[in-house]
Design brief:
Blueprint: E1 5-6, E2 52-58, H1 60-63, H2 72-84, E3 88-92, H3 100-107, H4 110-116, E4 121-125, H5 133-141, H6 145-169, E5 175-179, H7 188-195, H8 199-220, E6 224-226, H9 229-233, E7 238-239, H10 253-265
Parallel strand pairs: 1-7, 2-3, 2-4, 4-5, 5-6
Helix pairs in contact: 2-10, 3-6, 6-8
């Protein structure tokens, strides 16, 4: 049984031209005259704002696995476009199953580096897949915090290297938002059904440790860490089932909308 309670984001320029017709005192119309006006002020020109680019990097959460919905990357880009009054394109490079090692490999490819060189904002969600083997350890004999420490540390170090590599390709002024997780494993009703008593508390502890490592890597890279734990879990007493897809592992449409709003609030 779950330990958590239920819970349940142009300017238009008008130019008026006057037609001047003069009349004589007798009422006859003056001959047509041509008047040339020379302005002493610079001509006003309307320039369309340059389009923006949001690049999403990460695992199946970023990719929108199990949702069949508009992902938070697309929703976030749309929100930025509305706020900034300019087009903002979303490029979602999320891949199901990607780990921090896989992210580093992805960042080394020429096509990805070329896209990053044009990005205004990059959103990174990575690290959960590094820790998946811990679930089996917990099932067969338990996995206390000393069991968790080494994999979390390795994930943090790998992520730190990836974020440093990422920064080398970005243009000046580009922003990197690194999210953490509400849970690095299954959660809510599905987790209770699959793993039974004790799993919710253990996975919550692993998630908090992983989130601390993710934020430490982001801070070290001068990037912004965006918390997803509290919006989904509250203080750890909220059941996120209503925000999750049927597999209990990925956000549903409501979950993606929530993540997009959290990112907008952090931007």
């Amino acid at each position: 049984m779950s330990r958590r309670g239920r819970w349940v984001v142009a300017a238009t320029v008008l130019a008026a031209g006057g037609l001047l017709a003069g009349c004589t005192a007798s009422g006859a119309t003056d001959p047509p005259r041509t008047t040339t006006t020379t302005s002493t002020s610079p001509a006003k020109r309307t320039t369309a704002p340059a389009p923006g680019l949001v690049v999403g990097l990460g695992d199946s959460v970023t990719a929108g696995t199990a949702c069949g919905c508009t992902t938070f990357i697309d929703l976030y880009a749309a929100g930025l476009a509305e706020r900034q009054h300019r087009p903002v394109r979303a490029l979602n490079l999320g891949r199901a199953g990607l780990s921090s090692v896989g992210l580093a490999q992805q960042l080394a490819t020429a096509p990805v580096r070329a896209q990053l060189a044009r990005a205004d904002t990059v959103v990174v969600t990575i690290g959960a897949n590094d820790l998946v083997p811990l679930v089996r350890k917990w099932q067969v004999g338990g996995c206390p915090q000393e069991c968790v420490a080494a994999p979390v540390s390795a994930m943090r170090d790998q992520l730190s290297g990836g974020l440093a590599e990422l920064r080398q390709d970005l243009p000046p002024g580009a922003r990197v938002l690194v999210t953490d997780y509400w849970n690095v494993f299954e959660d809510g009703d599905v987790a209770d059904r699959l793993y039974g008593d004790g799993f919710a508390d253990w996975s919550d502890a692993v998630t908090k440790r992983a989130n601390a490592a993710i934020c430490a890597a982001a801070t070290a890279a001068d990037d912004h860490c965006v918390d997803l734990y509290e919006p989904f879990e509250g203080a750890g007493d909220r059941d996120p089932t209503a925000l999750l897809a049927g597999d209990g592992d990925h956000p549903n449409g409501a979950g993606h909308r929530l993540i997009a709003q959290v990112l907008l609030d952090a931007s």
